[in-house]
């Protein structure tokens, strides 16, 4: 029987020229998803399904590496993400366009040079695992961000559909996506409290709110059977972005209502706290596309509550009943079915507010005594209003604008 010794000797003598005639199969395959990267200890599959690359786990970085090996291409070039490709002759860059949209090609010394396109610079080529080459925060190495509307980790699942979002890191057991209602019972002690509104001495519950786009949000605890304190944080222990206490204690409305204007997409935590003993709670969230409350689209706050937003844009109302009003406005509508004492407060606002009330609309008669501009910040007015329709206007003195906090108690 003829042995293989002579054949091996021939290959050895021929050296690289003989090797260039052979195309070696990809014997380094590890299984798993093609082109996967990240922590090799957790995801050992580094095979990119390209026969001419040497696929391995970089122990220093924990990332999968795909080393091109031209000698496996029989004289052709090994292109990561593509495979063996013979350099083409060319006269200009147009000759090198492969028509795939995956590569950036140019003609250098009459030969085509092709490089994978990585438009967002995240080291994942457009056709090499990146599901959005226009967003640097989207690639297989990223962690999923619950609530931003993106498939950050390119696993085909977005936000709450991604398994990583099923378990809340802050301990919230209920979730509202954009809008909806949750309810339950709570008892025992409680340690969380609002930084601004009444401190709840009773138990609290935390509900995760996921917004997939910028939104105006209304949160309500109407239907709860105890005195609620409602507040929202950006993150588990993040800054408080708004709170609301009793809508009208004088009228026995101890539930809370909170408007948050132009809230960015993301994940927030809504706390339903108890002023004393706790019990059965109900939390409702409504959303709408952002809009600036204006004379033509005044926000209806007739039932009472707290509104947090910003005044911005052009100055529309050129004259005010008691002071210079040259800043942008925010306008709110009131429908009072019965006469009574009301309270309008903007004391927590962050700019010089001119606050006033008119009958019917922005062009109506100003209510006597209801125009206040006594400080360099927010204002407070308590007074009597007859049955009817009114508007509350928050304007900026001498062009001022910024974040406002309006609390209305009918």
How would you summarize what this structure contains?
The chain contains 2 helices and 23 strands. By secondary structure, the protein is mainly beta.
Shape designation: elongated
For the report, how would you describe the main beta sheet? 8 strands, mixed
Number of domains as seen in the coordinates: 4
Cα-based radius of gyration, to the nearest Å: 32 Å
How many DSSP-defined strands? 23
Order of helices and strands: HHEEEEEEEEEEEEEEEEEEEEEEE
Q: Overall mean pLDDT score?
A: 83
CATH arch. level architecture of the largest domain: Sandwich
Could you estimate the helical fraction of the residues in percent? under 10%
Output the strand order for the largest sheet: 8-15-10-13-17-23-19-21
Q: Helix segment count?
A: 2
Roughly how many Å apart are the termini?
105 Å
Write a concise keyword list for the protein shown above.
single chain, mainly beta, Jelly Rolls, 4 domains, eight-stranded mixed β-sheet, five-stranded mixed β-sheet, 2 helices, 23 strands, 3% helix, elongated
Written account of the structure:
The chain has 410 residues and is mostly beta strands. It has 4 domains: 14-37 and 45-53 and 62-85, no CATH class; 87-141, no CATH class; 143-290, Jelly Rolls (Sandwich); 292-410, Sandwich (Jelly Rolls). It is 3% helix and 34% strand. It has 2 helices and 23 strands. It has helices at 5-14, 16-19, and strands spanning 53-57, 64-68, 77-79, 83-85, 103-108, 111-116, 174-177, 180-186, 204-211, 215-220, 228-233, 240-244, 257-263, 266-274, 279-288, 299-300, 305-310, 330-336, 340-345, 353-359, 380-385, 388-396, 403-409. Strands 8-15-10-13-17-23-19-21 form an 8-stranded mixed beta sheet, with no helix packed on it. Strand 11 and strand 12 (240-244) form a beta hairpin. It is elongated. Residues 1-37 have low confidence and may be disordered.
């Amino acid at each position: 029987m003829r042995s293989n010794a002579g054949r091996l000797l021939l290959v050895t003598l021929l050296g690289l020229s003989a090797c260039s005639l052979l195309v070696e199969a990809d014997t380094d395959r590890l299984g798993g998803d093609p082109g996967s990267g990240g922590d090799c200890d957790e995801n050992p599959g580094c095979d990119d399904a390209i026969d001419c690359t040497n696929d391995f786990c970089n122990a220093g970085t924990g990332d999968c590496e795909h080393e091109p090996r031209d000698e496996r291409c029989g004289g052709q070039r090994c292109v990561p993400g593509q495979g063996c490709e013979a350099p083409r002759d060319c006269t200009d860059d147009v000759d090198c366009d492969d028509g795939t949209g995956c590569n950036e090609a140019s003609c250098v010394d009459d030969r085509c040079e092709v490089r994978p396109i990585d438009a967002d610079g995240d080291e994942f080529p457009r056709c090499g695992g990146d599901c959005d080459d226009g967003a640097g925060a989207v690639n297989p190495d990223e962690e999923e961000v619950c609530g931003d509307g993106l498939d950050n980790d390119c696993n085909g699942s977005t936000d709450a559909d991604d398994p990583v979002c099923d378990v809340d890191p802050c301990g919230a057991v209920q979730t509202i996506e954009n809008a909806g209602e949750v309810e339950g019972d709570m008892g025992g002690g409680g340690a969380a409290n609002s930084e601004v509104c009444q401190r709840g001495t009773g138990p609290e519950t935390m509900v995760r709110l996921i917004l997939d786009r910028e939104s105006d949000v209304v949160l309500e605890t109407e239907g709860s059977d105890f005195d609620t304190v409602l507040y929202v944080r950006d993150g588990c222990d993040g800054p408080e972005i708004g709170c609301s206490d009793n809508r009208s204690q004088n009228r026995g409305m101890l539930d809370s209502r909170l408007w948050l204007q132009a809230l960015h997409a993301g994940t927030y935590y809504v706390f339903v706290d108890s002023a004393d003993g706790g019990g059965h709670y109900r939390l409702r969230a409504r959303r709408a596309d952002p809009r600036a409350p204006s004379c033509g689209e005044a926000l209806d706050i007739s039932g009472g509550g707290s509104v947090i937003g910003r005044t911005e844009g052009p100055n529309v109302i050129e004259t005010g009943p008691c002071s210079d009003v040259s800043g942008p406005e925010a306008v709110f509508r009131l429908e009072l079915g019965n006469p009574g004492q009301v309270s309008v407060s903007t004391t927590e606002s962050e700019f010089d507010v001119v606050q006033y009330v008119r009958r019917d609309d922005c062009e109506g008669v100003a209510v006597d005594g209801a125009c206040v501009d006594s400080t360099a910040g927010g204002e407070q007015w308590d007074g009597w209003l007859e049955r009817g329709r009114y508007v509350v206007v928050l304007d900026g003195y001498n062009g001022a604008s910024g974040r406002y906090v309006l609390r209305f108690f009918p």
